[in-house]
Amino acid sequence: MKLLEQVVLVFQEGKSDKVYEVDLLEVSPGQCVVNFRYGRRGTSLKDGSKTSVPVPQAEAKRVFDKLVQSKLDSGYVRGGAPGTPVSPPAPRAPAPPPPKAEAPAGLSPRENVLLQQLQQEASARQWFRRADVRAQPRDLERVIWRVGELRLRAAEPLLLPLLERAKPLRAYCIAAALGRVGSQASVSALGKLYGDASTPAMVRRMATEALLQLSDEATRADFRQDVLEKLPPALREPARGGDAEAFGKALDAHLASGRVDACNVLEPLYLVDSETVRPALLRVLRTLPFSLESVRVLRHLFKAAEYRYDGEVFGLIAWRYEKEFPLRGVWPRAFTRDTRIYLRRRVWRTLRRLGELESPDFVKMAVGVLLAFSDADAVVPGSTGWGQYQQHWDAWAYYWAFNHLLYGESPRYEPVKNKLAFHCKGAYRPGAAAPDVREESFPRLWERTPEGLLHLLDESRCAPVHTFAARALRACPDFLARLDVDALAMLLERPYEPTARLGFELASQRLDAKREPRELLLAVARASYVPARQQAFRWMDEVRHALASDSGFLAGLATAPHADTRAYAANLVRGSVLSAQVVQALVGRLVAALLAMKKEDGPLAVDVGRVVLAALGPGSRVVGLEVVRDLLSHAVPEVQELGGELLLRRDPRTEPVPDELLHLLLQAGHAPLRALGLRLLALLSESEPALLAQETLLTRLATSHEPDVRAAVRPLLGRLLAASPAAGARVVEVLLAALLRRRLPEGVPAHVAEVLSGELAPALALLPAETVWRLLESEDAAAQGLGGALLERRSAELTVDVPRAVKLAGHDVLAVREWAWCWLEAHVPEVRAELSTAVGLLDSRWDDARTFGFRYFRERFAPEDYSLEVLVSIADSVRKDVQAFGRDMLTRSFREEDGPVLLLRLSEHPAPAVQLFATNYLERFASGKPALVEKLVPYFIRVLSQVNRGRVARQRVLGFLRREGQGTEAGGRMAMEVLHRMSATIAIEHRAAALEAMLSIAKAQPSVPMPFHIRPVEVRRAV
User: Fold this and answer.
1) How far is CA 287 from the centre of its chain?
2) Residue 866 needs a FRET pair 20 to 30 A away by CA distance; which of 419, 450, 756, 926 works?
3) What is the reported pLDDT for 27?
4) Buried b / exposed e across 130-159, counting CB within 10 Å, b at 16+?
5) Which helix (H) or strand (E) holds 173?
6) What is the pLDDT of residues 124-146, one digit of tens each?
């Protein structure tokens, strides 16, 4: 390794005595490294290297020179050879102070002081401080920030050198200041900050904002395009397009995706800030929930808006800081109580400093803050403390910047700094009359920019803001004199009395004796200020004849937002003779206004409709069917009503109404609209030909889901049947088909059945019998009821057999059941012949039907009429009362020869009561019959396996098995098998009985093996 070059640097100042040695070493031909050593002189130095691996000699030389120069710049001086004592450097004459920048002429004393402080800092950066350099009276960062606020362009040459090696906070302040005072030289310096990956994020953000301020429009457009390319794909294309609504939906979907960092996209969107992006961004800023991520993003946007003097975004976020509460349980702590207090103070501090500087941006920023508030932000006034310490708080007391702007010079409110609120001053109490004086802060600035006051009156939805702005605007007579009619109309229409009253006063000064300009007269008539409207009515009475020929004026009155103005318009039209041209133009304007209305405009639509009808008169026909169709298809019911009224005015004989429009009226969800349709339907059905022409429509309306429509159609259907039995038959056929399909809305089947059995009853006489049976067999209750009515009327024509009668005897309709019972009573011989079918009546789900069956089969038939199959089918029922009846009938009708078969059939039944009944036949028919007993084994097992039921049946079976087992060897083997199964039961009582029975069988039949062994009892004796 060869030493090519070595430099020794020393630093001595006060108690500091340091040494720094730099070596350039060749490790192989053409490959070098740069090493260094540093530490306190006289101690062991620490080693380091600037090149982790050997590099070419030229590159190593550059690294070596750069390291040496950086140390020289930081105050080191060259010393002797390494390891040799270094004598203190000889004192040298103080370096001459840097040339002072001559202050431009015309600067204020404050600006001169700021420049001097920056120059002093430049002098203080010399390594050997001069005696005449004084310490800064305040932090340099504050000086730099203030220079930017004052836009002191002479400071740029002094700021640029400070940017080198500046710490993040100072670099942030310098970047902000250069964005306001810089030139092309500043663009270069800021560009380095923006492009350097090591630049802290906050400095980079401010450098971005500063560069946007200094760049031309083409450069800003290129930058925004680059930001757009980096947006998420789901937002990129909507942001490029011109549809703000589509972008808003895409942004909502992105924020609702659930990603923690989803709100980070708001920062690049604010850099884009296009007409497509901004509406959605403003909406999100008002509603974005506060969280760890969103608070951070909102704070960045807040500072960016403050720097851009973007009052709208600044005001929205400032409003959020006033309304939101500190976040709890979030770490790191993002929006604490102290943070919220700081941000609320900062909002007013920014506005106050702009006001003190008399900046033209003050009004813009203040307007943004005030517009963010609405009447919904008011709270209930209250008081705290008691006695002489009681304080009263008004509805807006707790909004710091808001109160400073509106009441900074108020005699009735004063600030409470520790609460960041304003309380009532002196004897003033919430709700009392306000003093007739200006109360806002910086009134001269507001007067200098009256456009901001007019902006507040146009867009604000906050009563105190309107009170302030209207009063302040009165102090600008020259500006008020220049307002056009549209601006005065805007003032008159605002729903706040101070604003509307101001507009009325200005309008009164502009209107001449002929009440011109007429647009202004209309604006007064539409004003929210009641005295203004009343005065307008008096003025209009003076020129009624002239107004009757102005369709635009009449339409403006008819669509006014206030009911009294609309009523005046209706009376004016009703009491005037309008020309055909005026009527046509007026109706066209009003129909267009009606078609543009929304659902909440119902009362307005009613009044406008009255004006339309008054203008048309009883015999006028200027509205075509296309217009009526549009009105009937509208979403607002009141607009549809006008369409119905216009249809009623048509003569059906010369101007037929299309079925589609009539059906649209009759199927409307709005009851008054359906009433219009029914009136029209009645008119159309006055003549017999017209009635017959409506056959299809009447049939369809008979099944309408609206009860009033169905009720109105019933008499028309009766008239239709009387006029044409064939048409009535067709209607009946369609209604019956609809009834049997069971697809009608709730309540309609019962109505259809009533119509068929009422108004259309004569047509039912021609129905085939099969239709009657289909109605009776339907699962719909209404169809069944209609079938029952037809059964009573046409019973003589219908053919009934036993199976059908039995089915009807258990019908869901009581009248049908009763009819079937009468038929059964009258046809006992036929029932006796089909008794096996008839007993099916006993399984009916109706109690009265089963009660009739029990009586009927017990009284009308002798025991010999019942076969074994019939009796067993009765006993096999799943209903207990039918089983009991079956057992009773078996007892009465029992025949000895049927015993074995009956026993087998009864043994198959699962019901415990039937199983117990079967035990009555065991001894009589099974004893001594091994073949029959073997068939009964499944029965024995079922009975013996029952738990907690069938105790008597179990005892009888157990006794029967013991006797059969003791009688024969075959019986013993069979009984032993069944009892062995029972002995495995967990019940001790059952197991003991089985064991006892098996022992007795084993004694009687020694040849039958026992399934268990008997062990002798062990005898134990005491010692």
Assistant:
1) 13
2) 926
3) 77
4) eeeeeeeeeebbebbbbbbbbebebbbebb
5) helix 168-181
6) 544 444 444 444 556 889 999 99
- Nearest-10 Cα torsion for 138, 141, 146, 151: 140
Question: Are 817 and 810 a contacting pair, CB within 8 Å?
Answer: yes
Report helix, strand or coil for 789: helix
Percent of the chain scoring above 70 in pLDDT: 88
Q: Cα separation of 180 and 185, whole Å? A: 13
Query: Two tokens at 944?
Result: 């013996």
SS3 state of residue 414: strand
Largest CA distance in the chain: 150
Structure tokens at 727: 């048409």
Long-range CB contacts (within 8 A, 24+) of 600-608: 601/636, 602/636, 602/637, 602/638, 603/563, 603/638, 604/559, 604/561, 604/566, 605/636, 605/638, 605/639, 605/642, 606/638, 606/641, 607/558, 607/563, 607/566, 607/567, 607/570, 608/558, 608/559, 608/566, 608/642
Phi-psi region of 430 (alpha: psi -120 to 50; beta: other; left: phi over 0): beta
Report the distance separating Cα 524 and Cα 485, nearest Å: 11
Q: In three state form, how does the secondary structure of 790-830 look? A: HHHHCCCCCCCCHHHHHHHHCCCCHHHHHHHHHHHHHCHHH
> Residue 185 above 50 pLDDT?
yes
Alpha helices in 309-417 (DSSP H): 311-323, 337-356, 361-371, 400-407
Does residue 381 have a cis bond before it (omega within 30 degrees)? no
Helices assigned H by DSSP within 876-983: 880-892, 899-907, 912-918, 922-925, 930-935, 937-945, 951-967, 969-982
Cα-flanking dihedrals φ and ψ of residue 691, to 5°? -65, -45
DSSP 509-523: HH--TT--SHHHHHH
Question: What angle is formed at CA 114 by the lines to CA 112 and CA 119, rounded to 5 degrees?
Answer: 95
Q: Report the pLDDT value the prediction gives residue 735, as an integer from 0 to 100.
A: 77
Peptide linkage before 96 cis (omega within 30 of 0) = no
Give the 3-state secondary structure of residue 685: coil
Q: Which residues of 438-452 are buried (b: 16+ CB within 10 A; e: fewer)?
A: ebbbbeebbbebbeb
The position carrying tokens 């000889």 is 90
Q: How far is CA 115 from CA 104, 852, 1017, in A?
A: 10, 117, 123
**What length is written for the chain?**
1023
Residue by residue, DSSP assigns 490-553 as: HHHHSSSHHHHHHHHHHHHHH--TT--SHHHHHHHHT-S-HHHHHHHHHHHHHTHHHHTT-HHH
3-state DSSP call for residue 920? helix
423 in helix, strand or coil? Answer: strand
- Cα distance between the two ends of the chain: 108
pLDDT at 97 > cutoff 50: no
Compute the half-sphere exposure of residue 442: CA atoms within 13 Å on the CB side of its CA. Answer: 23
Tokens matching residue 959: 């006794």
Q: What is the pLDDT of residues 41-60, one digit of tens each?
A: 878 788 888 887 788 888 88
Q: Report residue 135 as tokens.
A: 């310490």
User: In the structure encoding, which two tokens stand for residue 1021, read together?
Assistant: 């004796």
Distance CA(873)–CA(876), nearest Å, equals 5
Contacts of 486 (CB under 8 A, 6+ apart): none
